[in-house]
Specification:
α1 packs antiparallel against α2. The chain is mostly helical. Helix content is about 85%, strand content about 0%. The chain contains 2 helices and no strands.
């Protein structure tokens, strides 16, 4: 999917469309080229924003996963500490 949203690919498609349209409608060559340039510019701007949003979402997700894992490890350590304290208490009462 990344290949189809790359700037090089989009510019290649825009160039091909421009060439086809200008050969079919030579009297509108300038208007066609301007329209294609504006469309490609808009598309690249939208894709850049989407790329930023997706990247930030991934960063946030990784941060959430890391915090969850940290809480899990703390709870596990606390459980081990409690189990060790109970084992010491049981050993002391069994003497």
């Amino acid at each position: 999917m990344a290949k189809f949203t790359s700037r090089k690919f989009l510019l290649t498609i825009a160039t091909a469309i421009t060439a086809i349209l200008t050969t079919q409608f030579p009297e509108y060559e300038t208007a066609i080229a301007d329209l294609i340039a504006q469309g490609v510019g808009l598309l690249i701007a939208v894709l850049s924003v989407l790329g930023y949003v997706i990247t930030e979402a991934r960063i946030d997700r990784e941060g959430t996963i890391s915090k969850g894992r940290e809480r899990e490890l703390r709870a596990q350590a606390e459980g081990q500490r409690i189990a060790a304290a109970e084992a010491r208490r049981d050993a002391a009462t069994n003497k």
